[in-house]
Design goal:
By secondary structure, this protein is mainly alpha-helical. Helices cover 59% and strands 9% of the residues. It contains three helices and two strands, in the order E-E-H-H-H. A hairpin with a 5-residue loop joins strand 1 and strand 2.
């Protein structure tokens, strides 16, 4: 199915038309400013702070912030599913926050010699 741009629409914007002649409806823009996405974004921002705290031997603060990250990971997913607040942005930044946190922790613990091995 091919989609082509038509000229200006009745409201001054451009519209799409597919090869069958039907104009597909545009999906509504989703609201990305919701509680689950804010919690996930805060978890993404906490990863470098946790790494810094580990490098500065502030293990109690690092553990507290890591616990915050774990709780928000649980809570944001629950809220998003419970109240139907899933977004495309959330499906991208949630795993990104998890991977960033694990990468930062692994690198910082390796630098400090906190990982088992030689």
């Amino acid at each position: 199915m091919r989609v082509r741009w038509l000229g200006s629409g009745s409201k001054g914007g451009k519209s799409l038309q597919n090869s069958e002649g039907a104009t597909p409806t545009r999906p509504p823009h989703e609201n990305i400013y919701n509680l689950p996405n804010i919690l996930t974004f805060s978890r993404l921002l906490s990863a470098p702070m946790i790494g810094y705290l580990i490098l500065q031997d502030a293990h109690t603060w690092a553990l507290a912030l890591f616990a915050y990250a774990g709780i928000t990971d649980l809570v944001d997913g629950y809220i998003a599913r419970r109240w139907g607040l899933q977004t495309v942005v959330g499906t991208v930044i949630d795993p990104m926050a998890d991977k960033t946190l694990m990468t930062v922790l692994t690198v910082c613990l390796a630098i400090k010699g906190g990982l088992p091995g030689e």
